[in-house]
Amino acid sequence: MDTRTLFGALLIAGIVGGFSVNSYFMDNGTEDNIIDVEVGSEAPDFALTDSEGNSFNLSDFENEKVVVLEFMNMGCGSCHNFEKEVLKSYCNSTTMPEDVEVISLTQTEDVSQEDLEDRAEGKNWAYVFGSEEITDAFGADRSPSIIIIDKDGIVTFSESGHMTESELEERINEALA
C-alpha cells in the first residue's frame, strides 16, 4: 500500500470514528454545559451536613430563601477560581440579599471533615458534603455546576462551567423575582 492510500484510509477512518463517537454522546444526552435537571421543574429535596457538622434539608429554605448550589471538587482549579473570583465577591457584597443561601457541595471522594473545614474557613457561605445521589439527582457531573432554586423549590437555572459575578447576580435576581 502506498503512502497516499494509507493516509486516505486513516483520514476516512478518523472521520467515520468521529461521527460515531459524536452520535454516541449526542444520543446519550451528553453535551457541554448542559445539566440533566430541567429548569422549571421542582428540585428534589435532600439532606446535607455542613463543615460544622450541622444537618439541614433543601426544604428548610422553602418559602424563605433562594438557594444557589455549587457542585464542586476540592482539587478543581475552575471550581477554586469560581469561588475566589465570583462567589467570594458576591457573598461578601453588601448588596447580596439576605434571602439568598449559597451552598458549595463537594463531589470529592474521601474528603475529610478537616479538609472541608479548611476550605470553608473565611468564607461566609456553606460548605457541605455532597453525595453521588445528590449529584445524580441534579445531573451535575461536571465541576463547577451551578443550580439556582427559587423560594418555591423550582429550579430556575442549571448550568455547568464558569460564569461571571454579574451573570450569577442576574440569575439570582431572576429567581428572586
Automatic annotation (TrEMBL):
Annotated Pfam families: Redoxin
Limits of the Thioredoxin domain: 37-177
Gene3D superfamilies: Glutaredoxin
Signal peptide start and end residues: none
GO molecular function, one term: oxidoreductase activity
Listed InterPro entries: Redoxin, Thioredoxin-like_sf, Thioredoxin_domain, Thioredoxin_ResA/DsbE_sf
Domain of life: Archaea
SUPFAM superfamilies, sorted: Thioredoxin-like (SSF52833)
PANTHER family the record matches: THIOL:DISULFIDE INTERCHANGE PROTEIN DSBE, THIOREDOXIN-LIKE PROTEIN HI_1115
Name of the protein this chain belongs to: Thioredoxin domain-containing protein
Source lineage: Archaea, Methanobacteriati, Thermoplasmatota, Thermoplasmata, Candidatus Thermoprofundales
